[in-house]
Structures are given as C-alpha cells and as structure tokens.
C-alpha cells in the first residue's frame, strides 16, 4: 500500500475493520487449536499465535500514529491493550499524544517507568508539555534531568502557561534568519536541513538578540533574485504575531481570519521565542468543540466509550442529579394543578407541547449565544441588546406558532378559550426560553464559568417547569 493510499481519509474505517477482523480471526483460530488434541500441541499453538501477531504487527507498522490512536479508541479495553503491546516502542510517545485523555490514561497504566520515560524522551519540549500532566512525577523528573539546558528551559516555559493560552500551544521548532544576509545565503542554509519543520511557510527575520524584524515567505525567497538581501524583500509591516499570554481563542480566530499557516510568538521585548502553527490551532479548536458538546450534554469530561461502569457513572452523575431535582420540581408544579387536570383532561395532552417547544427554542438561543461568545463576537455590554432582540423573535414565534396550536386545540376540543390559553402559554414560555437562552450563558461567563457547560440542561429544566406552570396556571384562571 503506498503512502497516498495510507493517508486517504476514507481508509481509516477500512484500517479499523481490518484490525478487528485480524483480532477476531486470531481469537477463533487459537480457540480452535486450543481444543484440538494433537501431538506437540503447545508448539502448534505457539506458532499459530506468533503468525497472527506478526500479521497484526505488520498492519500496525504501516499505519500513521493518528490512525493507530483512532483504532485504539475504538477497541474494548482487553483488545486495546493487546494491540498497544504490539506497537513499536519508538512510536509510543506520538500515539499517546494522539489518543483522547481517557484512553491515554488506560494505556499509561500498563506501562512501567522505563517505558514511559522512553516514550517521553522521543518527544519535543512542546509535545512533552502536553503529555506531562498524565505522567507520574518521577518520570517527568527523570526526563527533565535528561534534557540539555535549552530543552529544560523550553519545557519549563511550555508548562508554565495556562492550557488555553498561546504559550501552551506554541512549539519551538522554527527557522530564523538575519536581515543582513543575501537570499543565496539563506537558500544554502536551508539546504543543510534534512527537512524543514512542519507547516513552514515563512522564515522569521531576527537580529542578533532574536528581536523580530519581519518575515520572509518561502514564496518570496524562491521567486526573488538571490543577490538581494533579506532586508530588501522581507515584510516588516502588518506582521501578525502573538505573545505567550494571548488567549488561544483569539489566536484561533486570527488564523481563520487571515488564513495563517504559521505565526511567530514573541515575548515582551519582541524576541522570538516560538511559533504557532495551523496544526496546533486545529487541534485546539477540535478539543474545544468536543468539550463544548460534552458540556452541553452535562458530561464533565471526555469519556472512554469502553470505560468501566463505575468510571462512566462518575462522569455522568453530577448533571443527572441536577436533572433529577429539576424533574422533581416540574412534577410538583404539575401536582399543584391536579384538580385542574382532573376537570379538563385536555390539559394533560397539551402541556407537553408547550414545554417541548419552549425547550427547543431555548436551546436554539443558547447555542447561538455560546457560539458568539466563543467567536469573540459578544461583549457583556451587548447582553441587553441581545435580550431585546431574542425576546422579539420569541414574541413573533409565540404568536405565529402559538396561534396555530391554539386554532388546532380549538378544533380538536371545541373550546375557543382553550385555544386562547394555548396561544398565551406558548408565547409566554417562548419568552421565558429566550430570556434564559441569553442570560444563562452570559451570566456564567461574567462569573468566570464556562458558558457552554450544562446550558441545554438548565434551559430544558426552566422551560419544562415554567411551561407547565404557565399553561396550567392560565388554564386554571380562565377555563375553570
């Protein structure tokens, strides 16, 4: 299989199927051989096992570390650990970086200190900083001692920044040149490299103290006269750079807005200390998106799909407990109007519609607000303007769709007052949903909490209890 085929995005599912087939075939054949009564039974069994292991190992050796990580995440624990043992030791570090946090934990638990140290030492300082929180302290200490002074300083710097900052994402593998040399000298310098750092689209021009003076794109380098100096062709104006303290969200938006592939990271004195690449930004965006999806569902952290029952319970119980409380509150709201429901049975059939539509509308609003916050498009000062706008949308939707449901209720149950109550309840609950959809995420952000976490859970709780109370309350007042 050639490299192009191996990296085709559609192949990952095929790779997974092939590994699963190899594992299943190994299990069936070895069980069959184990049950056979034959001469030299143990030797035959050992040979069969080695044959299947060699075939599976050959398959794994041909795969990219990211593909192996994907396969490990898709395997139950026992098979995952069996496949993990077959991976070449020099690839352990790369694969540990690619797998999810939950799966990484299950793999690290099976490795001894020497294996972990060897895996960590194969990584660059910025990669090691990503893996360090999951490694035992004694392993990190041993690795730290094995680094040279520059590596220690880079690792210390990478680990000192918050995980949502540019400093935590930057890498130190970059190419810098001086402004007073010719392009011919730069070309000869680049030819000394076995390969350029990944995602190198520009060289950073610095002085003798590493202060950033400008950038030299590879395109400019290749098409310009080699006799020209770097200073004559470099771009020194409108150079986009970041500091380690900058928010990763802001950097991600800048990469998207200006179609960046790489950008320099500078300190307070404009010295180049690292770079940010599109690969780092894409990984960050993916992780943030996954965290937002999980948070909206009330999950505390990414969960290994094959985790133990107890680990899964611990990850999910917090918001389920909140749901239990809110469901109990909703049931007590209904209990307050038992007599009204007994007198007019139609209320029991119609009230879930009011609550359900309110929940859907609220989730639409909270999704839009959370996205706008994540994109940096909404400031706290805009909260009341957004609230007025969303209340206007809710009022129109309530009158239109509530009016339609009111007409249907009138037709089904032959009661015009019931239809009017349905319209009023729907409108009021949509107004409640709009208010909650704006205020919940924005107030959470103002208090320093993640606006995405638990948003849909809280909206559903409010619109259920509020919808029941509004509908049954109006029915009690105007119909009974």
TrEMBL record:
Membrane-spanning intervals of the chain: 391-413, 419-440, 452-479
Entry-linked PROSITE patterns: CBS
One Pfam match: MgtE_N
Domain CBS: 170-232, 234-292
Superkingdom assignment: Bacteria
GO molecular function, one term: metal ion binding
InterPro entries noted in UniProt: CBS_dom, CBS_dom_sf, Mg_transptr_MgtE_intracell_dom, MgtE_N_sf, MgtE_transporter, SLC41_membr_dom, SLC41_membr_dom_sf
UniProt keyword list: CBS domain, Cell membrane, Magnesium, Membrane, Metal-binding, Transmembrane, Transmembrane helix, Transport
Recorded GO CC terms: plasma membrane
Subcellular location: Cell membrane; Membrane
Oligomer and partners: Homodimer.
Family: Belongs to the SLC41A transporter family.
Described function: Acts as a magnesium transporter.
Name this polypeptide is given: Magnesium transporter MgtE
